[in-house]
Hints:
By secondary structure, this protein is of the alpha+beta class. The chain has three helices and twelve strands.
Amino acid sequence: xxxxxxxxEILSKFGKLFxxxxxxxxxxxxxxxxxxxxxxxxxxxxxxxxQGAHSFSHPITLHAKTGQPLxxxxxxxxxxxxxxxxxxxxxxxxxxxxxxxxxQCVEAVATRLNKRVPLARLVVDGGSAYLDIECELPFPIGVxxxxxxxxxxxxxxxxxxxGYMATALAVFTAAETDVTIKMNKPIEPxxxxxxxxxxxxxxxxxxxxxxxxx
Length: 214
């Protein structure tokens, strides 16, 4: 059984997965250690923020892999976090390992279908939440797995990167805490949080439904 990781250990292990890759990514290759003690890392598509993650006396951005200081101004990410949410999915700590396994299975299928954009859907149906995939190439493929029994009664669906969701749940599995997935409209940011100051924000994809024009 995996031991609970500290915030600094979580940042060290997972931070590089949230950072942008490649020399042209500039400052987004790094983890930003802010003046308030929080650490933020993002590739513009999903983001990890950990409160109380460091004790540096001044703000600094360090390369997520090499640890070298990076020049430039890290973008202000605070304004992209919604100030409220319309609905929530809850995953208790005891169910996180199963939810993570479900997400990893969906990620494996989604990546096999499209490595560049491993697309899945977060579906709320009948008070439960599922990750699913539907594909018609070249024969119908359907995958659906439940990640929570504590979801809103109002049904909804939103498309997202399956790998981002699997990584997010891995972060919270390492933290060993209950998790809340906060949602608004299907094209607005999804925020996954715990009560210990760890947040993951995922930007969903705009994918037209059948019969809808893009």
